[in-house]
């Protein structure tokens, strides 16, 4: 069971246990992490699950698809480490993953 830490823009940390096979967005929403909205339900069409992958983890999460990169183009404050949380499915290899939540999603 991987543990994931979400860090809000104000520095508040949320360390939560996740089930392998669930997406990072589903874990954030289920644990009421502020700032991760997931408005489209994980269909890669809203970008309200935008997160920043903490240094050292970017190469461990699966690569973004072309569709994800296209949707990210419409997100605010995009950075090189930006990802859509709904497109990252957790597994035990991602135990300890740290992601940051943007200041705003829209
Ligand atoms: S939840 Fe809509 S793009 Fe991720």
Layout of secondary structure:
Layout: E1 3-7, E2 13-17, H1 24-30, E3 50-53, H2 66-72, E4 82-84, E5 98-100
Parallel strand pairs: 1-5
Antiparallel strand pairs: 1-2, 3-4, 3-5
FE2/S2 (inorganic) cluster (FES) binds next to loops.
Description of the molecule:
With about 110 residues, the protein is of the alpha+beta class. It is built from 2 helices and 5 strands; from the N terminus they run ββαβαββ. Helix content is about 15%, strand content about 20%. A hairpin with a 5-residue loop joins β1 and β2. It has a single domain, classed as Roll (Ubiquitin-like (UB roll)), CATH 3.10.20. Strands 2-1-5-3-4 form a 5-stranded mixed β-sheet. The protein has helices spanning about 25-30, 65-70; strands at about 5, 15, 50-55, 80-85, 100. Bound molecules: FE2/S2 (inorganic) cluster. FE2/S2 (inorganic) cluster (FES) binds next to loops.
| Class based on secondary structure composition and strand pairing | alpha+beta
The arrangement of helices and strands along the chain is: EEHEHEE
How many distinct beta strands? Answer: 5
How many DSSP helices? Answer: 2
Query: Given the C-alpha coordinates, what overall shape results?
Result: globular
What is the name of the CATH superfamily?
A: Beta-grasp domain
CA radius of gyration: 12 Å
Helix content: 10-25%
Q: In the CATH hierarchy, what is the class?
A: Alpha Beta
Major sheet description? 5 strands, mixed
CATH architecture assignment: Roll
Overall tally of domains: 1
CATH topology descriptor: Ubiquitin-like (UB roll)
Strand order of the largest sheet: 2-1-5-3-4
Ligands (ions, cofactors included): FE2/S2 (inorganic) cluster
State the distance separating the first and last CA atoms.
32 Å
């Amino acid at each position: 069971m991987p543990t994931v830490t979400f860090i809000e823009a104000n520095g508040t940390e949320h360390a939560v246990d996740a089930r392998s096979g669930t997406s990072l967005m589903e874990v954030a929403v289920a644990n009421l992490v502020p700032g991760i909205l997931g408005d489209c339900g994980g269909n890669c069409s809203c970008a309200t699950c935008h997160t920043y992958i903490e240094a050292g983890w970017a190469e461990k999460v699966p690569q973004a698809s072309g569709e994800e990169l296209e949707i990210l183009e419409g997100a605010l404050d995009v950075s090189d480490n930006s990802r859509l949380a709904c497109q990252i499915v957790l597994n035990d290899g991602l135990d300890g993953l740290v992601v940051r939540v943007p200041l705003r999603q829209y």
